[in-house]
Amino acid sequence: MRVLVVEDEQLLADAVATGLRREAMAVDVVYDGAAALERVGVNDYDVVVLDRDLPLVHGDDVCRKIIELGMATRVLMLTASGDVSDRVEGLELGADDYLPKPFAFTELTARVRALGRRTTVALPPVLERAGIKLDPNRREVFREGREVQLAPKEFAVLEVLMRSEGTVVSAEQLLEKAWDENTDPFTNVVRVTVMTLRRKLGEPPVIVTVPGSGYRI
């Protein structure tokens, strides 16, 4: 899952991004509304965590622009105000969910994951395919009943492949969904991560390489 965090309190923004990355999400961070508009114009995000009170361009205007563009991106709006009228107003702008500050990080993560599931065809919370069971909320993976310990990026790659339900996912798509924008697009990190993932999942191999196209399960 790829997430954009838009928050002008840099310590909070960086803390949220770090926490979401530990949950195997690819996260980009910006600190004002103008930068947010620039990012959503060039990258496909599953979820935007959007502070409402932003400098340069207000969060309301960022939300409106996302809606105008007809993007599948879901918006989780944040605000320091807990007033019900503010929440209603934010939802009426087109935000998909609303979370007042201060918030529990576990709740933020759960809401981001719930919104992320709504950007694609509805799938069950626990994904199962080819003898593999993946639970994004618990960060657990089992193959034929055996628990498999994965690093965050390995987990993210496996989740993208599982959600594709047997269709081919290109290396570029994996790079976009599992890594942030600072990753060198010419790196071999996808190939190396898939190799490590195959080894950890064990025999017989379940990740198939489709020459010239990508990977599938």
Automatic annotation (TrEMBL):
Q: Which residues bind DNA?
A: 124-217
What protein name applies here?
A: Transcriptional regulatory protein CutR
* Response regulatory domain mapped to chain residues: 2-116
> InterPro entries given for it?
CheY-like_superfamily, OmpR/PhoB-type_DNA-bd, Sig_transdc_resp-reg_receiver, WalR-like, WH-like_DNA-bd_sf
The chain positions of domain OmpR/PhoB-type read 124-217
- One cellular component term from this protein's GO annotations in UniProt: cytosol
Organism superkingdom: Bacteria
UniProt entry tagged with the keyword Lyase: no
The record's annotation in Pfam families points to:
Response_reg, Trans_reg_C
List 4-aspartylphosphate occurrences by residue: 51
Q: Which GO terms describe its molecular function?
A: phosphorelay response regulator activity; transcription cis-regulatory region binding
Purpose: Member of the two-component regulatory system CutS/CutR, involved in the regulation of copper metabolism. CutR suppresses a defective melC1 gene, encoding a putative copper-transfer gene, probably by altering copper metabolism.
The family database entries (PANTHER family) matched by this protein are listed as: REGULATOR OF RPOS, TRANSCRIPTIONAL REGULATORY PROTEIN CUTR
Give any single GO term for biological process. regulation of DNA-templated transcription
The keyword Phosphoprotein appears for this protein: yes
Q: Which UniProt keywords are listed?
A: DNA-binding, Phosphoprotein, Transcription, Transcription regulation, Two-component regulatory system
> What PROSITE patterns does UniProt report for this protein, alphabetically?
OMPR_PHOB, RESPONSE_REGULATORY
Q: Species name for this entry?
A: Streptomyces katrae
